[in-house]
Design brief:
By secondary structure, this protein is an alpha+beta fold. Strands 1, 2, 9, 10 and 11 form a 5-stranded antiparallel β-sheet that branches. A two-stranded antiparallel ribbon has the order 3-8. Helix 9 packs parallel to helix 11.
Length: about 375
């Protein structure tokens, strides 16, 4: 809401030069989107809900009496708006003193039309003879963005993700709403934020994964161990996908943040497991330059067993810290739940990955370096 000015889940901003046509387009969009599945509520802003008093001086009529438009505007300004003539001082306080006509002389167009307009020693004529006075409809508030007038259709989406809803809504609006030349639409709200973040993540995520792969290679010095850790990340994310399905959460920015955090924790635990396995393999290699398959299996079992307690401690610490966030109901709870959910579910499959899958993959990789027993 702070970045887009939209209080609802989604909004369609309508840009153009004429607010009356913008309002008509908004009402057409409102009628078109009301029956669309996922629409909880849709409301097009009414641009012409205001009522204004218009006083338009007639230059020809003023000229016949030797008056100017400025003379008429001065009377209107003083009678209706008032004029500050002085300031009273009461101790440390200052109060402006404003003078204007009494309410009886300015409470309706007929009374206002009897106000006298004159200059110097010239004639004084009623304002109604030299100006057109009437009430007219107008916009209570004028919005502009990028130098263009706009109004918006506010939409609340329930029961589906914003991305698929916008795709369907695009098709419905394009089919049922005709835009005159010079008018265009822009989808805003959460969708606009998602699109902006998506474009950023398309650059940041591959760059981050590349940096992680480089750091892993510098740590292990082998492409194989780097690949074991990197290829293990999708398996760790499976639990996050499952819990998202169970809780009926849609993909959002908060969910993406949760998955990124989960990938980081899964990579960290995978690195620690490989370090334990490498130490066990190196200890076995010290006794014999080319250990047998049995010794390889024993070394892997020893390294994996040593990793059980720290892994379970890590998982329990993360889950016990995040489970309360899944039960929260206060301000910001909806965001915190979607950040915590992927990590809680992902830690389950990450544990299985680290304790079972990685040792098996490590065995398949190292068995080529072991001696086959006769």
């Amino acid at each position: 809401m702070l970045s887009t000015g939209v209080r609802t889940t989604l909004a369609v901003k309508i840009f153009g030069p004429d607010l009356e046509i913008i309002q008509r387009i908004g009402q057409d969009i409102e009628r078109a989107l009301a029956p669309l599945p996922g629409t909880a509520s849709v409301y097009a802003e009414r641009s012409f809900g205001g009522r204004y008093l218009d006083i338009r001086p007639d230059a020809d009529a003023l000229a016949r009496y030797g008056l100017t438009t400025g003379d008429a505007q001065e009377v209107i300004s003083l009678a209706l708006g008032g004029e500050e003539i002085t300031t009273t001082v009461e101790g440390r306080e200052r109060y402006p003193v404003q003078v204007r006509y009494a309410r009886d002389f300015r409470d309706d167009p007929t009374t206002i039309s009897r106000l006298l307009v004159g200059s110097g020693n010239g004639p004084q004529v009623p304002l109604g003879q030299v100006a057109d006075i009437r009430f007219s409809p107008g916009p209570p508030m004028i919005r502009s963005e990028g130098g263009y007038l706009y109004d918006q259709v506010s939409i609340d989406v329930r029961g589906r993700d914003v991305g698929s809803y916008v795709r369907d809504a695009h098709a419905v609006v394009a089919r049922e709403v005709k835009l005159p030349t010079g008018y265009w639409l822009r989808w805003s709200g959460q969708y606009e934020a998602i699109q902006r973040v998506k474009a950023r993540l398309q650059v940041v995520v591959p760059l981050t994964l590349g940096i992680i792969a480089l750091l892993l290679y510098l740590t292990f010095g082998t492409v194989a161990e780097t690949a074991i850790v990197m290829l293990s990340l999708p398996f760790a994310l499976v639990g996050g996908v499952w819990i998202m399905w169970l809780l009926d959460y849609n993909l959002s920015i908060a969910v993406a943040v949760g998955f990124i955090a989960l990938a980081g924790v899964a990579a960290e635990t995978g690195v620690v497991m490989l370090i334990y396995l490498d130490h066990a393999w190196q200890d076995a290699a010290k006794a014999r330059s080319r250990p047998t398959l049995g010794e390889l299996v024993a070394a892997i079992e020893h390294g994996a067993v040593n990793r059980v307690r720290p892994k379970l401690m890590t998982v329990l610490a993360i889950m016990l810290g995040l489970v309360p966030a899944l039960w929260s109901h206060g301000a910001g709870a909806s965001v915190m739940k979607r950040i915590a959910a992927p990590m809680v579910g992902g830690m389950v499959t990450s544990t299985i990955l680290t304790l079972i899958v990685i040792p098996v993959i490590y065995y398949l990789w190292r068995r080529g370096h072991a001696e086959v027993a006769p």
